[in-house]
Amino acid sequence: MIEGTGFQLKRSYLFGHFIMKLKLFGGDSVGVITAFYLSSSNAEHYEIDFEFLKNRTGQPYILQTNVFTGGKGDGTEDLSLV
């Protein structure tokens, strides 16, 4: 099952400020990914991802970040949230 929501603006912005509140799945969440991302819609793909990955009850979540610049996604980082 895949669920989600999203929106796209008709205008582009060069800079700004945003706040996102996410609620992570409680308990054993193996197989559940909660994500937030910003993405460009031009020919050269730019994107920043924040993905909260699986968790066994009592274990910390893993935050995986991905950065795509000029169409290349080689900026992955995994962080344990204790």
UniProtKB/TrEMBL annotation:
Keyword Metal-binding: no
Gene3D superfamilies, sorted: 2.60.120.200
InterPro entries: Beta-glucanase-like (IPR000757), Beta-glucanase/XTH (IPR044791), ConA-like_dom_sf (IPR013320)
One GO term (biological process): carbohydrate metabolic process
GH16 domain location: 1-82
GO molecular function: hydrolase activity, hydrolyzing O-glycosyl compounds
Keyword field contains Hydrolase: yes
Name the record gives this protein: GH16 domain-containing protein
Organism: Capsicum annuum
